[in-house]
Amino acid sequence: MQNIPHIPVLKDEVVESFYGCSEGYLIDCTIGYAGHSSAIMEAYPDISVIGIDRDDEALEFSNSRLKRYGDRYTLLKGSFAEKILEIKQKPIVGILADFGVSSLQLDKPERGFSFDSDLLDMRMDQGSSLTAYDIINSYSKDRLEYIFGSYGEISQAAKLADMITKARSKAPIKSAKELSRIAKTTLSSKNKIHPATLLFQAVRIEVNDELGQIEGLLDALEKMRPASATVSLITFHSLEDRIVKQRFKKWTKDCICDENAPRCACGKKHSLGKIATKKPITATKYELKLNPRSRSAKLRSFRFKGEEL
Question: With 70 as the cut, is the pLDDT of residue 105 above it?
Answer without folding.
Answer: no
